[in-house]
Amino acid sequence: MRPDDFAIDNCLKCAVCNDACPVFGVHPRYPGPKHLGPELERLRREGVATDTEWLEYCLGCHRCDLACPHQVSVSEMIARAKAKHRKPLARSLRDWWFARPGLLGMLATILPALSNFALSMRPARFLMSRLMRIAPRRKFPAYTRPNLHSPAKETTSGDRMRVVFFPGCFIRFNRPELGRKVIDLLERNGFAVEVARTDCCGVPATANGDEAKARSLARANVRSLIDHVNAGMRVVTACSSCGFMLKTGFGGLLDDDKEFADAARQIGASTLDIGELLMAQSDAGKLNTTFQPTNLRLAYHAPCHQKAQGIGRPWYHLLGKIPGVAIEDIDAGCCGMSGTYGFKQEKYNVSMAIGQQLFDRISASQPQMVATECATCQMQIEHGTTFKAIHPVEVMLQAYDGRPL
After folding, report:
1. Is pLDDT at 157 greater than 70 in this prediction?
2. Residues facing residue 326 across a β-bridge
3. How confident is residue 1, by pLDDT bands cut at 50, 70 and 90?
4. Concatenated DSSP letters for 324-360?
5. Using CA atoms, how far apart are residues 323 and 292, in angstroms rounded to an integer?
6. Does residue 84 carry a pLDDT above 70?
């Protein structure tokens, strides 16, 4: 029996989850996680038809789970109901593709220059808005040939601690140079790095209601990672969504398969965000602190999936160790992008309304740039403000060499 089969009775309808929900705060008609989760779940389990369009408006940010004083798995109930929700054809086609960023990345990087040109053209974006309901004001990240590989064997030998880097789709297909920076940063701190041969983590599939695809990806990733973990290697992520998915045993998708479920939990227990890993090195007195003074004023935004991991704000503390860096924690809630959510035409205004508080706080702070570990948070910040957003890895790595960003 699933843990939430018991936890559902712990819901006392206190509505704390509604208070924590970013959508509930900006959309007057949105019924909130309390209704879409435990209230409707009781009816769903009795076979009552409860399908509703509002399921699609859940961000999957997991703030409701964190807020619940009785540990009810609100977001998981909504995600399972979303997987059974029936959508119009155009949105079904769009969400099918959004659930498969790995496939989309492989196709787009066959001829990346052509793909980038086509995706940047206004007529193409107009057609996508008409045929697939993709917000025409959104810009797609540029694609590049996937050329991220494990370092040469001589750099992974010796007494270095061995780790396996799970890059995720965005680093693999859009920013492999960021992946190389992750590897460089890890090597400078005494780690031997191997790049995992994995697929998408499965968060986009779950978010777009494709549970079957999410399960398939989870199984493939377990097969790819378990031998590394059994060999004593830690799994390192540089994307908060990938890290959250791995740490939760791939979202409980494999709980009904004991062999895979045990392996998934083993992988989850061995997974660390790179900031979390480096913070542990710092606590142990092993962090490479040969930083050059850097005159930089930063704002830091903690992504929702980073908060959901319960690891604090490691990057905020790590970047604060660099001489000359002034960093402000912009604690202004969710950015509103939530992966593919903000690309959807019917959700664009909701996405921007959620992010407005963050945009205003960043503008008031007037930083030189914003640091955040989530790629789509970076996109949303740059879309809603005039400030450049970068991954904290880039700040720390540049500080070692004293080069300007």
Report:
1. no
2. 297
3. very low
4. TEEEEE------S-TTTGGGBGGGHHHHHHHHHHHHH
5. 7
6. yes
Q: What is the domain partition of the chain in residue ranges?
A: 3-83, 287-401
Of 125, 241, 103, 114, the residue nearest 173 (C-alpha): 103
What phi and psi, each to the nearest 5 degrees, are found at residue 370?
-115, 135
Instruction: Map tokens 């494709």 to a residue.
Output: 210
268 and 304 in contact (C-beta within 8 Å)? no
- Of the candidates 361, 338, 360, the one whose C-alpha atom is nearest the C-alpha of residue 350 is 338
Distance of CA 388 to the CA centre of its chain: 19
Q: Does domain 287-401 have CATH number 3.40.50?
A: yes
Name every residue whose Cβ is closer than 8 Å to that of residue 262 and which is 6 or more positions away in sequence: none
CA distance 237 to 244: 9
Q: What is the DSSP letter of 8?
A: G
The residue ranges of DSSP E strands in 128-190, in sequence order, are 161-166
Q: Residues 101-120: pLDDT tens digits? A: 999 999 999 999 999 999 99
Give percent of the chain with pLDDT exceeding 70.
97
* pLDDT score at 9: 84
Phi-psi region of 172 (alpha: psi -120 to 50; beta: other; left: phi over 0): alpha
Q: Homologous superfamily of 3-83 in CATH?
A: Alpha-helical ferredoxin (1.10.1060.10)
Per CATH, 3-83 and 287-401 having the same topology is answered no
Report d(CA 10, CA 73) in Å as an integer.
10
Q: Could you please report the per-residue DSSP string of 254-277?
A: TTT-HHHHHHHHHHHHTEEEHHHH
% of the chain surpassing 90 pLDDT: 90
CA distance 172 to 348: 26
